[in-house]
Write a structure and sequence with these properties.
mainly alpha, single chain, elongated, 7 helices
Length: 233
């Protein structure tokens, strides 16, 4: 059953897409962007493997802090057990105040250590998600000048106008490759949600998935315009 994303399969799909882009558009900038996405996919696979590994030293430190807290509590209770019925209220208050600071400090240390592993993993995941967000915008930049409207309305180019040498079929393929690349960037982001159940990470993943979906819709609107222009030709 296919219940999880496989980083190896995503990487294989990206490498196949790179070959398709290079064969159709040799030396195109989109192929170079695909190279960057592939390198990021490899780093994503490594990061996800790192996210799955337990941080033994952090867990050992947290366990030690818990043992120290228990020992402190036992140390506070011993005088009362040994001198039951003999200790006065004021002596109780003095002993309690003496140990209270230690208990509070150990409690804070335990909380810090118990949350440290998740915070370290969150930081690593957010670094990877930032890369993917940037790549999505880079892919979008490479299709910005691929304007299908010019297929329907020819006009005079200016000195700064981009060169438009693609046929309608080639333009459709270029836009299709861009949409596929955006989709795969979104799938790489989803890997982080699959390997780390953290609210901040899940929110960042959702943001990237929304971004790539919206950019893909914009690309497919261009594809639809190309198809309309082809029918009118």
């Amino acid at each position: 059953m296919y219940l999880t994303l496989d980083p190896a399969r995503i990487l294989a799909t990206l490498e196949k897409l790179r070959s398709r882009i290079e064969e159709r558009f040799p030396g195109a900038g989109l192929r170079k962007v695909c190279d960057e996405v592939i390198e990021t996919a490899r780093r994503t696979e490594e990061r996800c493997a790192w996210l799955d590994r337990p941080h033994v030293w952090v867990r050992a430190a947290a366990t030690l802090a818990v043992l120290l807290l228990v020992a402190t509590l036992v140390g506070l209770a011993l005088p009362f057990l040994d001198e039951a019925g003999e200790i006065t209220f004021f002596e109780f208050v003095q002993v309690f105040e003496a140990g209270l600071n230690d208990v509070v400090l150990l409690g804070a240390a335990i909380f810090f250590l118990l949350t440290l592993e998740n915070r370290l993993k969150r930081k690593r995941a957010l670094e990877g998600l930032h890369e993917l967000r940037s790549l999505a915008h880079v892919v979008d930049m490479h299709q910005l000048t691929k304007d299908p409207v010019r297929l329907r309305h020819q006009g005079r180019d200016t000195t700064s106008s981009p060169k438009r040498t693609l046929t309608p079929f080639e333009l459709t393929r270029y836009l299709d490759y861009s949409a596929e690349l955006l989709s795969l960037v979104g799938k790489l982001a989803a890997l982080y949600a699959q390997h780390l159940n953290d609210a901040v990470v899940l929110s960042a993943v959702h943001e990237i998935e929304t971004l790539t979906n919206e950019l893909s819709v914009k690309v497919w609107q261009k594809v639809a315009t190309v198809e309309v222009a082809a029918k009118e030709a």
